[in-house]
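Subject: LUD domain-containing protein

B.,
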Amino acid sequence: MNFFKKLFNIPVTEDKEIQKQEVDLSLDDLFVHNFVEKGGKFLYCLKESEVIDNLKNILKENNWKQLTLLDNELASFFNKEDVTIYKNFNSEIPVFLNCEHLIADNGDILFSSRQLKSTKLSEMPQNFIVYATTSQLVKDMGQGLTGIKIHHKGNLPTNISAVKNYKINKSDDNFLNYGNSNSKNLYLLLLEDL
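Prediction pasted inline below.
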């Protein structure tokens, strides 16, 4: 098209040219852009004390007095007085968990049976708080699955799935997701570890 415009001396507006240019974002910027675009709530933390402060603020903001916690390592972020911790899923109680990877090219969060146990993502509570580190960022789903294969060599997890929508009851027109409602009200606490 530009060839014909140049050939016939038709002026090209710079605005259209600027809009056509691709912008290369770093993995973390790309992930954050896609994650927020889908409605996710993102909190960046430089140190663990910021994770603890942000977690307390999330609990206070939503008036949550209870959390489901499956990973004992995450218990270090809580005081016993702040919240009542449950070990089993209840659809009414928000869940605090970690993840396998953060997928930059589409803003998805990848989970496996290491986090979800045998529960399907669609059966999980609507409210999620996810703890992740910047070293868990990968470019695409292929790298995420390869990362799982390398990280869990010899004992591959099952039940691999991803949260794709961060707005509750958002309809998904993708026929591959038919019957798999995995929209979640999701907060992401991302800790810088690189």
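The mean pLDDT is 83.

T.
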